[in-house]
Amino acid sequence: MSVSQEIVSLDGPSGAGKSTIAKLLAKNLSFKYLDTGAMYRSVTLYFIENNININDKAQVLNALDSINIEFDTNNKVYLNNVEVTDKIRESRIVAFVSQVASLDIVRDNMVRLQRMITNNGYYVVDGRDIGSVVLPNAKYKFYIDASVDERAKRRHKELLDKGDNISFEEVRESIRCRDEYDSNRKNSPLMVPDNATIIDTTNMTIDEVVKKITDVISNIRALYN
Question: Is 145 helix (H, G, I), strand (E, B) or coil?
Fold first, then answer.
């Protein structure tokens, strides 16, 4: 890691609050924020809307060459110059993203892009394999977790607020299945990265989580100053 680079990695399962926490943390630290989950969801959206057969390697490769993902300063997500921030969080995308993200050629493409983006600068990066695979040399590593019921409750409220009419039971089962799929996939499975601080957010507020992470970072910095 160069002297002009500091990375905070936040790994953890779906619905643990990583994105919300990462955005606030980046703001508090004056770091940039990279939402890798949004990148995979954007790819998934493109695949769905363009009827890409994920079992056809040639189709997938051609599709990846046609995809351009960008973030603006307000963390809005753009897929080929079209804003898709809310669209990529619809239940149809969430239900399919793990299958897309498990494809070797998709992960290799995204990992290269993520490493290129964060090569110079100060970033908070959240995802499933940031501290373990994408940026294993991140200076500050965290694993953000919560109970399945709590994560389902949070995701269910988020979807209802956006007009997605789905039951709590459906959301809970989707999260349970995604946990199992992400943890058992061969390529970059969900795991606690080496030397990561584990934070269970089940009974914590967002502000409490951000403060805890900030305190850990401050303590680590103090050791090197």
Answer: strand
- Exposed / middle / buried, residue 72 (Cβ in 10 Å: 0-12, 13-18, 19+): exposed
Tokens 């753009």, located at residue: 78
Burial of 56 (0-12, 13-18, 19+ CB in 10 A): exposed
Write the CB contacts of 133 (distance below 8 Å, at least 6 apart in sequence): 111, 188
Q: How far is Cα 127 from Cα 16, in angstroms, rounded to an integer?
A: 11
CA pair distance 3, 47, nearest whole angstrom: 38
Rounded Cα gap, residues 216 and 140, in angstroms: 8
One-letter amino acid identity for 55? Answer: N
Which single residue is written with the structure tokens 């373990």?
Answer: 132
Three-state secondary structure call for residue 118:
coil
Contact call for residues 131 and 188 (beta carbons, < 8 A)? no
DSSP-assigned letter for residue 193: P
- Provide the whole-model pTM: 0.85
10-residue mean pLDDT profile of the chain (225 residues): values are 75 91 95 93 97 97 96 91 94 90 93 92 93 94 96 91 90 92 85 95 95 95 80
Tokens of 210: 């951000």
* 128 touches 182 (CB < 8 A): yes
Tell me the C-alpha distance between 101 and 39, whole Å: 10
Q: Where are the beta strands (DSSP E) in 45-86?
A: 69-71, 77-79, 82-83
